[in-house]
Amino acid sequence: MTAISCRDVAVAFDGFEVLRGVDLDVASGGWVTVVGPNGAGKSTLLRAAAGVVAAAGSISLGGRPVDGLTRRELARLVALVSQEPVVPTGMRVVDYVLLGRTAHLGFFEPEGKRDLTVVASALDALDARHLADRVVDTLSGGERQRIVVARALAQESPVLLLDEPTTALDMGHQQETLELVDRLRSERNLTVLATMHDLTLAGQYADRLVMLVAGQVVADGPAAEVLTAEAVAHHYGARVRVIDDATGPIVVPVPGANPG
Amino acid sequence: MTPTPPREPDGLRPVSLHGWWLVFALGAAGLASMAGLVLGPADLGVGRVLVELADGLPFVEFDSGLGERQQAIVWEIRLPRVVLGLLVGAMLATAGGAYQGVFRNPLADPYLLGVAAGAGFGATVAIVTGAGDGIGVLDPVPLAAFAGALLAVTLTYLVGATGGRLNPVTSLVLAGVAVASFFTAVQTFVQQRESETIRQVYFFVLGQLRTAGWDEVVLLAPYTVVCLAVILAVRHRLDVLGVGDEEAGALGLEVRRMRLVTVVAASLGTAAAVAVSGLIGFVGIIVPHTVRLIFGTSYRVILPLTVLFGGAFLVAADLVARLVLQPAEIPIGVVTAFLGAPFFVVVLRSARRAS
After folding, report:
1. What is the ipTM of this complex?
2. Does pLDDT of A201 surpass 90?
3. How far from the centroid of its chain's Cα atoms is residue A247's Cα?
4. Is A152 helix (H, G, I), strand (E, B) or coil?
5. Residue B133 CB contacts under 8 Å (≥ 6 apart), including other chains
6. What is the pTM of this model?
7. Which CATH superfamily is domain A2-253 in?
8. Cα B343 to Cα B53, B214, B283, B337, distances in angstroms
9. What's the rounded Cα separation, in Å, for the pair B62 and B51?
10. Which residues of B touch A99 (CB under 8 A)?
11. Given A14, A71, A120, which is nearest B249 (Cβ)?
12. Can you say whether residue B23 is alpha, beta or left, with left for phi > 0 and alpha for psi between -120 and 50 degrees?
């Protein structure tokens, strides 16, 4: 089954086309990572899939077109982890993760026991139970990233959108976060659509890569097919060597003048 | 130190309103109210006032020993004024807290969207046309002030909704600034042309808790009760706005509807309060911020406590306004700012040390 299906998706801000003619499918339980240079429209694609920016064309989640869905219905289908989540000052971790329950609660409804149970399970899944009473804005970058993912898990939606989940993290925490997401994906049968800058990591964790350039899909397939030295040089304006490895292509920057 | 609440079965302790905090806030409101009933030119005594109040309860009878005139002072002069103070204080403070939540702006106060300027305009028009003196249920001044306030807020909302590319919060706040300036300009113009009524207008602008029996309370209570109930009901979702409009939307919150419901309730309640009490400043800023600094940043704690402390604060301020220059009264807006500002500085400094 297809968890996410985009057909001819286009997004324009102030008349400027950020995405056009994007077709993208993610199978249920799959992991697709969108790569591409800065300004390619990666974040916009995720935000369109989450329904927070208006898009032309059609986007379906689990076979349901997002157009006819209310915000609550949508948030039960898809959880978005933003690139730079807004952290409210003074809010404790438990309350922050509880925000993930918004879509399951009425306008005037207080959280109940079940919501707390879900939050506890989300914190446990991320080995973050010990952080529950900490204030979010005092956490380290790695801890904060786990809390934000915990909030998305508390949403209990089958699709997880991760916008640059590793950008602010050191190498160890990058791997830890991606391993965690991969584990959660299989444990909870989640579908993951992510964006990433680190091409090597992107290739190691996704089933498939989609390369987006100037708002259009230029390549879609297994990492070994998408991450060629020519494609990276052409689209990123970068000089790289791609080494074939059992874990996937390793993209290494090479010093020297950039190729035109 | 406040007692820690029992842990939930999961071992998690989400933020919640502790019973002791509520007792403390109720105590503050009770104490201020009692002082408001007992203190004044006529010396009635705490014990006798308490017995007199108990006598007012159904099915019981006590003899307080108060004469008929003293009883009238309690029931027809001081009690309605205390209740009016509780209602206006609770409404202005809670509306301020709610605005700060939905606009994510610590400087938001109940007058942000032009309520004050609209009310001032309405009242000025009623006063200069000689329609009334501002007392009583059917007096045109509060009605005109109420109408002016609602007109201004509605205009702000209509203008703000057409903000185009601007962020909706920014465009609404800017629309409020524009509408308020406009109404203030018109009010000043009208007032200049009819300068003999300046004093009356001036009194309205500085705010006052004047009562004629229970009329004002009866007029205001339904609005206050309904608007406070709505604001308290949305408090469970108000914290979601702390992550910004886009993330809140992605979490499943209908952000526009949330903001509309809250702003309508807060504005309607403020308009009603301003109509009977004039423009009492500072309550809507100082009370919710003090509560926030002492009890934490969650609106599910801030708003209920702000209702009680807002009422307590205004009743206390009114007491000062009545007593300091007896038999003359200081405008209550002067007292709220004069006492409130230094107190707030103290709270702010101690909170910074604590953190």
Report:
1. 0.92
2. yes
3. 21
4. helix
5. B139, B141, B200
6. 0.89
7. P-loop containing nucleotide triphosphate hydrolases (3.40.50.300)
8. 32, 32, 12, 10
9. 7
10. 239-240, 243, 251
11. A71
12. alpha
